[in-house]
Amino acid sequence: MRATAYAKINLGLRIRSRHADGYHPLRGVFQTIDWRDDLTVEDSDEDGMEVPGGGAPEDETNLAWRAVAAARDAGDDAQPTRIVLTKRIPSPAGLGGGSADAAAALNLAARRFSVSFDDVRRIAVDLGSDVPFAVVGGTAIVTGRGEFVSPQPDASGFAFAIVVPPISLDTASVYRSWDRLEGPRGPEIGADDLPPALRGYAPLGNDLYPAAVAIDPTVDGWRAELASRWGIPVMMTGSGAALFAYFPTRSEAEDAVSIAPEGAVAAKAAEPINRGWEIVE
Ligand code: C5P
């Protein structure tokens, strides 16, 4: 069985102080985009994982592997499984690529091993804070540590230009940096600078931005350079360091990508889509 796993952008991410469980309560507006990995889950003689083009681990440290193992434990069969993952979504970048792979693998394995929807939801939260959203996808308000996903009307009629700087940020470290800074609020985009479909969510800001910049100030250099070349506000998604801006059309986003500075890990135009993953028969 084959599936497509889609990346996400955090249109907005508000954080509150760390709870006793070690996680920060958040309120985010999450959006799936058409930047994708491909994944197959097949019966095999022994468990294994292959990432032919590289870009992710090929063992149990890969969330997709852990998703399949957890689904099999919850399911009705113990058949060994081989996962083949074609990575395109850069990681780590704040684009949720690993979580998207996990959500797609989990849903494939849930079919294969007849796992209930309740078990899928439970496993998703155990895998990571971004996985419950990736299971649902589209446009959603996400709360708790990430486990509460409230789907919103599909947002459309705009595009993103996304640039991934050559900066690797670890999510847990960015949250710790936010704690050290005593809970800063990030810069915001107001309604006037948002596409019409998103104005109801204004203002949209990312509280992890100052925390990421405190770890690696070059993030702000990339942001400032892109904002100057594009002439519009540039935001960071998740714990970074991918940066994005809104454009009315894909072709305008592609023009913006074409004038991004040299040296990025990736630069791409993308559009919002209304699901987190899909099975390709
Ligand atoms: O849940 P996940 O494994 O993706 O989270 C990675 C790290 O990010 C956690 O160990 C935690 O330090 C931090 N985190 C947090 N609050 C959240 C989500 C993640 O502190 N809501």
Keywords:
281 residues; Ribosomal Protein S5, domain 2; Alpha-Beta Plaits; seven-stranded mixed beta sheet; 8 helices; binds cytidine-5'-monophosphate
Q: What does this 3D model show about the protein?
A:
- This protein folds into 2 domains: 2-152, Ribosomal Protein S5, domain 2; 159-270, GHMP kinase, C-terminal domain (Alpha-Beta Plaits), CATH 3.30.70.890.
- The protein is globular.
- The protein is of the alpha+beta class and 281 residues long.
- The chain has helices at 63-74, 97-112, 117-127, 131-136, 171-180, 208-215, 218-230, 250-258, and strands spanning 2-15, 26-43, 48-50, 81-86, 139-144, 148-151, 159-164, 188-189, 204-205, 235-236, 243-247, 266-270, 277-280.
- The strands form 3 sheets. Strands 1, 2, 3, 4, 5, 6 and 13 form a 7-stranded mixed β-sheet that branches. Strands 10-11-7-12 form a 4-stranded antiparallel β-sheet, with helices on one face. The protein has a two-stranded antiparallel ribbon with strand order 8-9.
- It has 8 helices and 13 strands.
- A hairpin with a 3-residue loop joins strand 5 (139-144) and strand 6.
- Bound molecules: cytidine-5'-monophosphate.
